[in-house]
Amino acid sequence: MKKIMILSGAGLSAESGIKTFRDHDGLWENYNVMEVCSTQGWIADHKKVTKFYNERRRDLEFKEPNRAHKVLCQLEKEYRGRVIHLTQNIDNLMEKAGSKDIIHLHGTLTDLRCEACTEVFDIGYAPQDGSEKCPSCGNKRLRHNVVMFGEAAPEYSNIHQAIRESTLFIAIGTSGNVIDIVSIAKEFKHSILIDPKRQLIESAFNQDNYIDDYFEHFIQKKAGESMDEMMKIVEEHMKD
Ligand code: APR
């Protein structure tokens, strides 16, 4: 059975006004990633990390899904059970667009996690201010439900399963700095890369290999502008 694996990143939500991480003026240009998004940063300064995620949660409240979120939701509905969309994004814009099956590999911004019983619960767009209690065990040792550098990412097991089950791979708006989209693309005969920027593969040995060299199709456009072209390729692939 033909199945589609989608791996999305911050670029998917860029047109909704959410900053990416590594682009010009991206989040990691304005924050020290190891201070606000790593285990050692969390151990060193809970307040600073909590403040960082409170600000991102507040910023998310009035952001709306863009055309790419909506088309990917349609795709999920049209081919129910045959689309595995794994996102590195912690925003809720796919859910806001109506997605039921989206899998968050790096956690969810609008949830907190209990450090005592691991319960995950919704906090909406509210800032975490220390007054919260775990609805399951009553503990107050709570933190943002986001996977930080140096931490395990339990949902990554979905990546290998998706590669095994799928016949078409689509990478949207991810630089591949954290999840290596080139090695995934090598597992597929059919693949689409969507990114307005053409990127050289960063490795000591590589002089002039581009990420898109490993993809069947490269749509060098913003996510929202690339959907018609992507859907043509998808419908052709899913035809028989
Ligand atoms: N449409 C599509 N792609 C876009 C757009 C857009 N409108 N704008 C930017 N991009 C592309 C950029 O060219 C870049 O390749 O999106 C990519 C964003 O890359 P990163 O900022 O590195 O984000 P991402 O790949 O999602 O980061 C992975 O790193 O910091 C951690 O946990 C964080 O989940 C994140 C992970």
Quick gist of this model?
The protein is of the alpha/beta class. The protein contains ten helices and nine strands.
Kindly describe this structure.
The chain has 10 helices and 9 strands. It has helices at residues 11-14, 27-30, 33-36, 39-44, 46-60, 67-78, 93-96, 157-165, 181-185, 223-238; strands spanning 4-8, 83-87, 103-104, 107-114, 120-122, 142-146, 168-172, 190-194, 217-219. The strands form 2 sheets. Strands 3-2-1-7-8-9 form a 6-stranded parallel beta sheet, with helices on both faces. It has a 3-stranded antiparallel beta sheet with strand order 5-4-6. A hairpin with a 5-residue loop joins β4 and β5 (120-122). The longest helix has 16 residues, at 223-238. The mean pLDDT is 96. Adenosine-5-diphosphoribose binds at residues 9-11, 14-15, 20-23, 26, 88, 106, 173-175, 177-178, 194-197, 222-223.
Question: What is the element layout, followed by pairings?
Answer:
Layout: E1 4-8, H1 11-14, H2 27-30, H3 33-36, H4 39-44, H5 46-60, H6 67-78, E2 83-87, H7 93-96, E3 103-104, E4 107-114, E5 120-122, E6 142-146, H8 157-165, E7 168-172, H9 181-185, E8 190-194, E9 217-219, H10 223-238
Parallel strand pairs: 1-2, 1-7, 2-3, 7-8, 8-9
Antiparallel strand pairs: 4-5, 4-6
The protein binds adenosine-5-diphosphoribose (APR).
